[in-house]
Model the fold of this input.
Amino acid sequence: QVQLVESGGGLVQPGDSLRLACAASGRTFTSTTMGWFRQAPGKEREIVAAITWTSDTTFYAAAVKGRFTISRDNAKNSLYLQMNSLKPEDTAVYYCAATYSVRLITRSSEYNYWGQGTQVTVSS
Done:
């Protein structure tokens, strides 16, 4: 089993930045593809960004491309999401997810391990 714990959420104003972190523990972190998902009230969970084990391939949802950056530090078993120029529509619970794969995975159904989520609220 892989345990994932997110941190870094909070209440910010439009235009502000936040950096989310996800710490992994338990079974080896090696060869995992990881992703960030979000779920807003009344909406389905959606992919935000994903990254392969070697960080050579990334994916960003159209709504966040150019504003968010996903990264990972395998030595620290950690995943990050740098969020800049935040908008009210970015308000959601953000989840970290992992799965053992060398491919880039963007579908939530293919992720096996999930964190508990961290709330991000963007409001003036």
Summary: The mean pLDDT is 95. The longest strand covers residues 18-26. Residues 72 and 79 are 4 Å apart (CA to CA). DSSP finds no helices and eleven strands in the chain.
